[in-house]
Every structure is written in C-alpha cells, then in structure tokens.
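hey can u run this one w/ PMV bound, need the structure tokens asap thx
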Amino acid sequence: MKAIAVSPAKVILFGEHFVVSGNSAISMTIDLPTTVTVEPLKGDEIQIRSEDLDLEAAFSPTGQILQGAGPNAESTLRPIFEVADFTLKKLNQLGLGLKIAVKSRVPIGMGLGSSAATAVATVSALTTLLGWPLSREEVFDAAYSLEKMVHGHPSGVDQATVTYGGLISYRSGKVEATLQVTKPPLLIIGNTGKRRSTGEFVGRVTRLRETEPKVYGRIASEAQEISDRAFDALRNGPPETLGPLMNENQRLLESVGVSSPDLEKLIAAARSAGALGAKLTGGGGGGCMIAAVGKTTHAGVSRAIQEAGGQVLPSEFVTHGVQTALHED
Ligand code: PMV
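ok here u go:
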C-alpha cells in the first residue's frame, strides 16, 4: 500500500511581500509537479529519498540522523522529516516507520513554491496512507503551521495556492476569492538561476516596516491598490491592463529592496522585447521573474530572456491544487 500526492507549483502575480503584513496577493498554480510517495516501513525509521537530487537520509523517530547519502543530505531532507514528524504527532502515530520519496520539477529556492509543494504533498500523502485523508482546509492549516514554525512570519500564500489551486486572491490566512478564469494571463517565467533565501528578504521588508512605518504604509497601500486593480482586470478584462500594473508592482518591490540586478536584467530584456509588463515573482533577490505577453510577442520575449542569461521555465496554468490517491500493491 502506498499513497501518492502530486502538488503543482505557484507564481505570485501581484502582492508578494506586502501580503506578509496583511495585503492581498494574487497567485496561480502552474504545471510543474512535485510528487511525494509515502509507504509504510517495518521498524520506526523514516527514510527519505529525493530522486532529482539523488539524496537519501534515514531519521530516528526523535529526529536523529541515522544515515545520509549524498552532499548535504541531512540538511536538505530534514525539512521533509519535520513535515512527517509533525503529521505523525498530530495523528498520534509517532514511531511509525515510513519510506518517503520526493520527485520534483520545481527548482529549489527560486520563488516558485518548491518547499510549500513538498510540504503540502507530504501531508496529503501521509494522512491518506494512514486513513485520515484531510480536507483542503486541514492540509493548508497543517502546511501553514509548519511554515510558521520554520520561518517566523510567512503569509501562507504559497501553501494556500498549491493546496487549493487555480487563480486566487489570498489575504490574512484565507483565500479571499478564486477567479474562475477561462483564459489565464499568458506568462513567461524567467529564472535568474540565483538561489536565495526568502526569509532574508522578508526580514529586509520587516525591518523597513518597523523602522519607517509611514514610508512602508504608503508603499503597502499603493501595492494594495495595484492588487485590487489587477483582480478587477483579471475578472473583467481587458488583460492588457495587467502589464502596466506588473510594472508598477515591480517599482514598489524595488523600493522595498527585494529586487536584484539579475532580476532587473531579465525584466528589462522582456520589456524591450515587447512584454506587456514584467516583475519579479516570490521572495526576490534572485529566483524568478514573470512577464505578461500577448500571443505575438510570446516567442520574442522568451528569446530575449534567454539571451539575457535567464532560463525560461514552463508556465502552463493548472486549475487544480494537490491531488492524492491510495495505491494497493
Ligand atoms: O517563498 P517564495 O519565494 O516563493 O515567496 C513567498 C512570498 C513572500 O510574500 C515573499 C513571503 C510570504 O510569506 O508571503
């Protein structure tokens, strides 16, 4: 018997960072799957394997590393142990042996929600295997609580997006609205390839909020206005208005210090090649940017991002969140 959960990845279209202090963010799921397979194992070890990174580690129920194979196996795989441990404790099943395999197409630390996708899929697969399949709300609550234990003040937007799926507006721990769009915005995702820590950049914005509350307040209310206008444009059109709103959002993200020269190089290349608008997505400081394009500019913008040194990633919209199934074998 094994349970398999597949989670999509996410991009934030508007409102990252400002969502941490209570603004709305607009985000959507994309077709870059993370698959987590969980099987019971004799004994009490939790064995974890990352297929893409070719890493393996075994942990005792108290979290001691028993065995590790591959560079940084323990530090890379421990967050997955923490998710399993948290879930087992919730279900009063501590001491159960497990074999967990993770396979993901999401680049790590690039702002596309790789850790949220792994956490959400692990919680879903494990609870399904143990006969306690959770509602989406419960999966989100578990993944969000875990993220709070690890990162202090996350907004939960990543966990909500990949749990519920689709194009959503998220605020203060809740999905405010799911936009039933037939045609999602046409996007190109460009990866700078520069891995960074979201926590560091969230900390930067928090410091600005604490030391310059008035300045921050003005920027955040402008950001909220942009998210509101973008929500309206996504619902009622015209889609072209999204481009200028993305550019305005990027300007605000630059003003709070979370952009980077690598991101700005790709953003400038996209705009020069005819993108409707472009901005960073996620935590910033590196990672990925997005460009809104029309059908005729798609190929040119994609080429321009690559020529500027970026890697273009698949950005196909998917409407579903995490999906889980039990397999008898
Ligand atoms: O973790 P990332 O880089 O995919 O982005 C998270 C979005 C932030 O708004 C920067 C942080 C948060 O908790 O909402």
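The longest helix spans residues 213-236. anyway lmk if its weird
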